[in-house]
Amino acid sequence: QLQLVESGGGLVQPGGSLTLSCAASGFTFDYYAIGWFRQAPGKEREGVSCISASAGSTNYVDSVKGRFTISRDNAKSTVYLQMDNLKPEDTAVYYCARDIVCYSGYEMKTHEFDLWGQGTQVTVSS
Questions:
Q1: Do the strands 3-7 and 115-116 form a parallel or antiparallel pair, or are they unpaired?
Q2: If pLDDT is split at 50, 70 and 90, which confidence band does 105 have?
Q3: Which residues are CB-contacts of 42 (< 8 A; sequence separation ≥ 6)?
């Protein structure tokens, strides 16, 4: 079955950490780049980070640079998003999605990602 499944969301205090996972199935995982998006209530979906198929290239939105780290394990068909020093403004539903490319400076547009997970909620609050 062709799918992406996110996990690892939850409630965390400001300054805390979470690691999100995106598990893929039903396609040749190491042919595709994977991206993470987030959507806060009342806001548009925003590209957060992406990683190329070989993990040779990564990209981050400015607001998370130095705090979030994306990685992938192609043997496990899984992409991770390590989120450190979390802030209340990071609160959102986080989605992973599939694309063909990712590189530094890539402008992540939702319509270019063709397969999406169901999302996982991240809440940063004291």
A1: unpaired
A2: very high
A3: none
